[in-house]
Fold:
Amino acid sequence: MATATEEVRRVVFDSREASAMVEELRASFGSGKTRSYEWRASQLNKLEKVTEYHEAEIIEALRSDLSKPEFESFVQEIGMLKSSCKLALRQLKSWMKPEKAKTSITTFPSSAEIVSEPLGVVLIISAWNYPFLLSLDPVVGAIAAGNAVVLKPSELAPATSKLLARLLGEYMDSSSVRVIEGGVAETTALLEQKWDKICYTGNGRVGRIVMASAAKHLTPVLLELGGKCPVVVDSGINLQVASRRIIVGKWGCNNGQACISPDHILTTKDFAPILVDALKQELDSFYGKNPLQSKDLSRIVNSNHYARLTKLLDEDKVSGKIVHGGERDISNLRIAPTILLDVPQDSLIMQEEIFGPLLPIVTVDKVEDSFDLINSGSKPLAAYLFTNDKKLKDQFVRSVSAGGLVINDTTIHLAVPSLPFGGVGESGMGAYHGKFSFEAFSHKKAVVYRGFSGDASVRYPPYTKGKLSLLKALVGGSILGIIRALFGWS
Structure:
């Protein structure tokens, strides 16, 4: 029978084990197996099978970790990953094909192309709020690009983490795809290693730690962070549709625990009470008069996040601003959808990303003032505008900097695979989804092909005035100048 010391020694994943694992993966990558279309396609097919054959287990794990409704689990996690796999399989050959590039007269005769090659061995550190999708969606891109991959799921979603470790261990090629479970110690051991790229989804505080670790090895990073995603609401709109779309983007996305969920609303003083009434009516319609009992709302992930959110609500300058909701159930880690009106800008709830079911409404004199208010803070991961005014739409797109913008809806840009998904500034760097996932984990290698004919002496010593004149004409692109230089005409 193993002693307690032997048991601890067996389960510890430290820097030495991390280093050995990376070496094994580098050897596998070095063999060239992950570069073939056949290997990439087979692994993507297996990921798709995970979604098909284990749907019930995935839904149960998400329910265990977050009380996530089955509808959200399927649509926002399983369905989106399945679509990602299908798209990659359908487009993989075209993505892998070298892109033809034009050459210039200075290299004539020649041809050129851009070859997408895998980076090598990549690390993916995922988040707890969408623990299935945000773990495997980057893996799809990394495998499609031909890399060996290590996935570190979030320890804050333990049921999903355990399931991912088991399923990927059963389905995937373990010589090139690994899952490492654990918390800070395991993540630290992984970050001490040299990777060819690190993809991290989470908050800015940890993002800075990841980036600092990566800098030691000059490792490129893909950081998917967050921020305070604003919703600007103009008057003269279909208020019922707008309210429904705000609600489903906020509380219908993991009860506000999503990086692209609306963080706060900006609207005029006159329109705010009308908007509040519309939101109240639709919230009652969606979640009933006792939303704490609703099976269509996820719970807060853990007691620490529950305490953080209650601290935001209980601040003196905020507690009196609640105009709807505010009910809590600490035993089940539930907070009802909560709307707050005229919250001061210097309050805690307006200084940090909320990441929960609280929705402050900030009022301005005119809608255009909202854009200046947004731009005065850190650039958000997403920003939303509801209006029928074309000039306002154009001004919003032109003046507001964010990872992504949506007009007259929320969060749906995430479901458009032809669009890049990523942040800007403190909301992240780099982007993925669809072909952008393939490119995120690829190096664009420039290749020029030449034969031995057409070898011009102009590039070789001795350097003469005539050769210099010809080179100047070539660089300038002047046909007449080239002719004059060839014939030695001044």
Summary: The first strand starts at residue 99 and ends at 101.
